[in-house]
Amino acid sequence: MSRKKNRKHNHAPPARPRWLLPGILVGLAVVVGALVLVLVRNSQQEPYTPEVTGGPNAEVDQTVLDYGDVQFEKPVEAVFNIRNTGDSPLQILGEPRVELCRC
Questions:
Q1: Cα(91)–Cα(48) distance, rounded to whole angstroms?
Q2: Whole-number Å distance between alpha carbons of 78 and 100
Q3: Distance between terminal CA atoms of the chain?
Q4: Kind and range of the H or E element at 60?
Q5: 92 vs 103: CA distance, rounded Å
Q6: Is the torsion defined by CA of 30, 36, 39, 43 positive or negative?
């Protein structure tokens, strides 16, 4: 009689590291804590009170730019910060008009 050496090996699945579950829980706690902190800070801000009532009002941080002498067709870039100080939504329709002067 011949014996079959065909044995099935029952290997146990690899054990998870013991730090995995606590690490996930700590990470989750940090994320939840950060969200709570952001929500609490946002709720403590004073409500917005408009400076102008009865409609929108655009406040521009600068109205004059002086780049000196610029070569013809050389692009120049400017950034304006516009803030709505009114109590209604501010809509800017179309491209703003720019006036060039030789002052």
A1: 19
A2: 13
A3: 113
A4: strand 58-60
A5: 28
A6: negative
Tokens of 101: 């002067």
3-state secondary structure 3-30: CCCCCCCCCCCCCCCCCHHHHHHHHHHH
pLDDT, tens digit, 9 for 90 and up, residues 41-79: 766 667 767 777 888 988 888 888 888 888 888 888 888
> How wide is the angle at C-alpha 22 spanned by C-alphas 18 and 28, nearest 5°?
150
Q: Which two tokens stand for residue 93?
A: 């329709």
CA distance 32 to 40: 12
Say how far apart CA 90 and CA 84 lie, in whole Å.
6
pLDDT score for 103: 64
- Residue 84 pairs in a beta bridge with 58
Separate counts of helices (H) and strands (E) for the chain: 1, 2
